[in-house]
Amino acid sequence: MPPDNRPLGDQHAIVIGGGLAGLLCARALSRHFQRVTVLDRDHLPSGPQARAGAPQGHHVHVLIARGWRIMSELFPELSAALDEAGAPHLDWLADVAWHTPFGPAPRNSSPLRSRACTRGLLEYTVRRLLLADPRVHLLDGVEVDGLQSAGDRDKRVTGVIAHRRGRAGAEAPALTPDQLRADLVLDASGRGSKAIDWLTALGYPSPPETLVDAKLGYASRLVRRAPNAPWAGLYVMGRSPHLPRAGVIYPVEGDRWIVTLVGYGGDHPPTDDAGFLAFARGLATPELADALAGAAPLTSIHGYRRTESRVRHFERLRRWPGGLLIVGDAACALNPAYGQGMTVSAIEAELLSQHLRLDRPADQHCRDLQRRLAAAARPAFLTASGDDFRWPTTSGRRPPGQGVMHKLIDRLLRAATRDPALYLRLLEVLQLVRPTSALLDPRVLAKIF
User: What's this model's pTM, rounded to 2 decimal places?
Assistant: First the structure.
């Protein structure tokens, strides 16, 4: 057992949600708790298929550099497992052609590396590696109805209230009290989380929320990779405020591409073959549509519309029960167009592991840790929501200074098309490797102005 793996007696942690956020946090918890149980309301697939509880699973899921680095540390076997499954390696500067509103970005070798695959393959691989640990158990087909607690005003969560959701024609075994009691409960159940209902049932107020909705919709399909493409991946940006369309071609296992078309402000891509290709022809450059026309379709076209960015500010509640944490989309859900969601989940798992490594009992410091988790997700939310406000149809409270920031980013992006070092710095910020303040470095500003 590695030196940071110090189980705390017979303590038990429950993770609600078997998606990526739950799996990564379960890995962090397994290094410090004797038992970890993951509960998911759906019956999970036995292979690398899209999960029923992740309707966006048919679309591009970008794993940016920082997320890959953290996942590789949590699961040292992950790279070899993805190699075996045929998931491509990706250098974000050398392998991806990025068409900005100011022209194509430079392409050179860079340290920004990650892996490209379907969301289904990544979740399946992480889940398989996680469950190889005898301390971790997964119970699927289990729906959580509420929280068990002890105490009067200052409550402590002591477990969950849950029931089995049986498969058709099969009687589900009953859950035992031991499976539902826990020293720590972590909610990673995604956008559909009922954490607010569970908290109000215990006498806590509802947290304030911040909602930013760019009215974005997207549509995706898998295609056979076209031969002789001059890039591994392609990203065509929209041009605010007059061209609210963008598109991505992303390489995945099996010599395939996922093609995702994006439209802001209600200008959503169709899900029929002719309409899908016509929408692609309306992008700022014909390169994506030309590549799509030469690629054989492998699946039908899936649409998705639930793309608003939303923060539930649990960290602002003055009272917080011991033994409870809320992570991932259950607390901070991001517009998926920016590809930061999986990486934010990885950052939260890393933060959880660092907290536990300090020998600070998680159940006694949940309020402080919940605030730190919120702070860790905030930069990605500000990046996503800030860019959403480029579109006049976006709803939500617009922070002051957005116009100035947009002009700064436009100057930076224009200069980056001519300066590979500047382009690398911009992508390091977008991929959460550097803080946003790195764009205000005097050397960067000198190049911009």
Answer: 0.94
